[in-house]
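Subject: design request, 98 residues
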């Protein structure tokens, strides 16, 4: 597993992980998130380096915005996540790289 720093990450690093499960590491445990969307930010001056990730987790508990370690079998990265929506299917957490 490779630990990446957010400054080094690009859209290509996540493109193959759309639909993949990630473990969000928490004090005393973890929470499973699914990477639902990987999309470029079109108005960026840095093609490939500006992008948006949307992760879906359970509706409860709701975690506040903050930096969390996300891991799967091929990638481990600390990402600043913001909860942006809740519905019957769960909570959506967003990360913007710009």
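Subject: RE: design request

Done. Sequence follows.
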């Amino acid at each position: 597993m490779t630990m990446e720093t957010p400054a080094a990450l690009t859209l290509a690093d996540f493109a193959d992980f759309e639909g993949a499960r990630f473990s969000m590491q928490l004090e005393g445990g973890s929470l499973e998130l699914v990477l639902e969307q990987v999309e470029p930010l079109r108005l960026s001056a840095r093609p490939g380096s500006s992008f948006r990730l949307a992760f879906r987790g359970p509706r409860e508990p709701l975690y506040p915005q903050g930096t969390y370690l996300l891991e799967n079998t091929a990638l481990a990265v600390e990402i600043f996540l913001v909860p942006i929506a809740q519905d019957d299917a769960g909570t959506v957490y967003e990360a913007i790289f710009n």
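The chain is about 5% helix and 55% strand.
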